[in-house]
Design a protein that fits this description.
With 806 residues, this protein is an alpha+beta fold. It is built from 24 helices and 9 strands. The chain has a 4-stranded antiparallel β-sheet with strand order 7-8-6-9. It has a 3-stranded antiparallel β-sheet with strand order 4-1-5, with helices on both faces. The protein has a two-stranded antiparallel ribbon with strand order 2-3. Strand 2 and strand 3 form a beta hairpin. The longest helix is centred in the last third of the chain and has 36 residues.
Length: 806
């Protein structure tokens, strides 16, 4: 087979003077007849956006990661002023290696840490609690009646007498298991956070806050004191710190991709141009984000790499087409225009599918994901200019080396009548028997993958922060909290609404008590804390400590007197809201689902005009709402993504058969990706949900490049075998090259210190490989079954990028 048979019958034009500059469509003429202007405009844009990109910040926001329109979150936000600290908070456990916390040296260290943390920017100070805050009080029944005061006694001086009083106050404060460990060897500073720094009005800088907390840890941690820190702010801070190493993996991926492309082309200048244009796309993206007021966060930081990966895929296709034309003897400018004609529409359709795949994420009512959708869509839009337009124009100036062109021609000539063994193997899938076997095997994989994917959970499947390694310092700190405190850091809060001054009525408290008891019977629930439980303790205190009185007294006046000594967090000022604290062993998806189900079932029976049980506050309550939204959004998102891809493929090919051939391999990859998440023990959450959609957008590129060339040759009367072979020579070998290259590049993320990045590397590598295999194996097999055996020859319209109507 001659090499020019592969090239859509474009005539060889060795001299630029022999080429008609008026040929081609309007877009091609507008671009290539004004090449210097296009390059100048792109250079100006690169300089401006490079300066803007320097202002792009890396931060995170707690409120952006929660579904603000969900009823749980709306209820929490409505009562937020009365629920200080029940959303975004940090817990700092100060542990002593001595006998107990009742030591003058320990208490002095705790006091100094308390004072420093209290003054940190973004701390919601009225709701901060520790042994040294005035809101931490004790209450007891004495011979003179009910007595109480601050846990740290007035006149505390560190003397043995003061420490004995402190111990007594702690034991009767009710804070053992909450602020004080049950073994009395550590205590906690509970630090609720605001979303903005009240002094500057700017969003809270989590990296700076994490650094300040680390500075406190380093200065106060000694051989006698250990400090453990947990909370959303610390997770984000550790992620951002780890992202500095992520950049090293990004550079490694760039180096791997560039090295493999060079190994294929053996041309330094064209390889550098492909890499440079893909990096320029990332630079433009970052500049546009900065100008638009967006920030990168730990969950969207991987998007620039995806933009680079997509750019490398499209850029390699353009370079390969130009290299093959130049190898045939065509002038480099003409070769660039020929490649632009053949591949611009396929590339544009693929990028539009990518953009739509990203953009549909905006339907998910979580701002962090919506921001990611915008960030990714901007990046893909930029690629239309940098890799579909700028790259061919730049290659029209520099061309490829003579050695690379000769090597390309030699590869095509070597194939000749005796095709390469790999092409012969792939060609088997254009035959009925092999095609049927591939389709049956794929169907079996789809069914098996779907059965496994039914076990895919929504939310966290592990304790601590799954985004970080199990042995990370944060997860070790989290394990310390769980092991030493009966009241864990995973708090689910049920809000109980009543008319004013009715929160302590017997009817209300008895209902709260019944719900608390039923929740305590659930697996994963450690304890509950509410005004009802406090009132029962008060009943014992009012009756000389007789435990027989550990019951609610059916007397509203007696119950109402308890609120004078109750902690502020249990009810609001108008006594129209109670908080039922539910302390959980963890925030795993199953644990949260059980609690939500139990509360909703109870509320359905107990809610009435005088009492309403409303979900939910606390970090666990907010995460439960997030899980519900993510569960619903996952299927909606895939429906929208595939719907958009089907529409775009239909517009491009105008053939339902071709649409099925392009889309079915993508669906197989999506199903197997979900099965892989089950096997890896990954849950669907804010961090992982977008990757499922991104895989569809990236994968459609491969299918479109192969299928567009196949259909073009089928329309000219070629057999399916010949059409597929030509597609392999022209675009298929680059699909294989980029698929393997990018899979290897992201697979290096497995060694990242951030587990989230390592997981994403595994998923992306899997999707790159399976989408490549789908385009090279399943696509021709489906074409053998779905597409006609031959197509009627039509007039050659090589001056336009032609798609098939079958």
């Amino acid at each position: 087979m001659k090499a020019d048979d592969v090239m859509d019958h474009q005539p060889v034009v060795a001299r630029l003077a022999d080429f008609d500059p008026a040929s081609g469509d309007r877009l091609e003429r507008a671009l290539f007849n004004h090449r210097p202007l296009i390059v100048l405009l792109c250079l100006i844009a690169t300089v401006i956006l490079s300066v803007a990109a320097l202002r792009l910040d890396l931060n995170a926001s707690f409120e952006k990661t929660i579904p603000s329109r969900h009823p749980f979150i709306q209820a929490y936000l409505e009562h937020r002023a009365d629920l200080g600290g029940l959303g975004n908070a940090v817990r700092i456990a100060v542990e002593t290696t001595g006998d107990s916390i009742f030591d003058a040296g320990y208490q002095d260290t705790l006091r100094r840490i308390n004072d420093e943390v209290y003054l940190l920017p973004g701390v919601d100070r009225p709701f901060m609690k520790s042994l040294w805050t005035p809101t931490t009080r004790w209450t007891a029944v004495t011979e003179d009646g009910i007595d109480g005061g601050t846990v740290v006694p007035d006149g505390y001086d560190g003397s043995p007498r003061s420490l004995e009083v402190l111990r007594a106050n702690v034991e009767r404060s009710g804070e053992v298991g909450q602020l004080v460990a049950t073994n009395f060897r550590s205590s906690v500073l509970f630090v609720p956070l605001l979303e903005a720094d009240p002094q500057t009005g700017k969003p809270l800088d989590y990296r700076a806050l994490s650094d300040r907390l680390e500075d406190i840890r380093q200065r106060y941690q000694t051989d006698r004191v250990r400090i453990h820190i947990t909370g959303f702010a610390k997770v984000v801070g550790d992620l951002i710190e780890g992202l500095e190493q992520v950049m090293l993996f990004f550079l490694l991926a760039v180096a791997i991709a560039g090295a493999v492309v060079f190994g294929y082309t053996r041309c330094v200048r064209s390889t550098l141009l492909v890499v440079a244009c893909s990096l320029v796309a990332v630079l433009w993206q970052c500049g546009l984000l900065a100008l638009s007021g967006y920030e990168l966060d730990p969950y969207s930081i991987l998007v620039p790499f995806l933009v680079f990966a997509i750019g490398m895929s499209h850029g390699a296709q353009k370079m390969n087409g130009i290299m093959q034309d130049i190898g045939r003897g065509t002038h480099k400018v003409v070769a660039a225009r020929y490649t632009f004609r053949r591949l611009f529409l396929a590339g544009l359709t693929a990028l539009l599918c990518d953009a739509v795949g990203f953009a549909v994420l905006i339907i998910i009512p979580i701002q962090a994901i919506q921001d990611l959708a915008v960030i990714a869509s901007i990046g893909v839009a930029v690629l239309i200019f940098t890799n579909l337009i700028l790259l061919p124009i730049l290659l029209s100036y520099v061309g490829v080396s003579a050695h690379a062109a000769a090597l390309s021609l030699k590869k095509d000539q070597q194939d000749g009548p005796e095709r390469h063994w790999l092409w012969r193997a792939l060609d088997l899938f254009t035959r009925r028997g092999w095609a049927a076997a591939a389709i049956v095997l794929s169907a079996g994989l789809a069914v098996g993958g779907y059965v496994v994917s039914l076990d895919l959970k929504v939310g966290d499947l592990d304790p601590g922060a799954p985004e970080l390694r199990a042995d990370s310092r944060y997860n070790r700190d989290s394990a310390f909290m769980v092991a030493n405190y009966a009241a864990s850091s995973d708090i689910f809060v049920v809000m109980v609404e009543t008319p004013n001054d009715r929160c302590t009525s017997y009817a209300t408290l008895s209902a709260v008590d019944r719900l608390a008891w039923s929740l305590e019977q659930l697996p994963g629930v450690e304890a509950t804390h509410s005004m009802a439980g406090l009132s029962k303790l008060a009943g014992v205190g009012f009756n000389e400590g007789n435990v027989k009185w550990y019951e609610l007294i059916a007397n509203d006046s007696a119950l109402g007197s308890v609120q004078n000594h109750a902690p502020r967090e249990l009810f609001n000022k108008g006594c129209s809201l109670l908080s039922l604290y539910v302390y959980l062993q963890d925030h795993k998806a199953d644990t949260l689902a059980r609690v939500v189900s139990a509360v909703e079932a109870f509320a359905a029976q107990a809610n009435g005009p005088n009492v309403r049980f409303v979900l939910a506050a606390g970090n666990a309550g907010i995460e439960a709402a997030t899980n519900i939204v993510v569960h619903k959004a996952m299927r909606d998102m895939l429906l929208w993504v595939y719907g958009a891809v089907v529409v775009l493929c239909w517009i491009t090919f105008r053939s339902w058969r071709a649409v099925l051939v392009a889309v079915l391999p993508l669906m197989l990859t999506s199903i197997l990706c979900e099965a892989l998440m089950v096997w890896l023990g990954m849950g669907v959450k804010v961090a992982t949900l977008p990757v499922i959609a991104l895989g569809v957008g990236i994968g459609v590129d491969y299918a479109l490049y192969v299928l567009s060339v196949m259909l073009s040759h089928l329309r000219r009367g070629a057999s399916l075998s010949d059409a597929y072979y030509r597609a392999l020579l022209f675009t298929g070998r680059v699909v294989m090259l980029t698929g393997v290259t990018l899979a290897v590049a992201v697979a290096t993320w497995v060694w990242s210190p951030i587990k989230f990045q390592a997981d994403m590397g595994i998923l992306l590598a899997f999707m790159f490989l399976w989408n490549m295999l789908g385009a090279l194996v399943l696509l021709p097999a489906l074409a053998c079954v779905l597409l006609p055996k031959s197509a009627r020859p039509v007039a050659d319209t090589a001056s336009k990028p032609v798609m098939a109507t079958l």
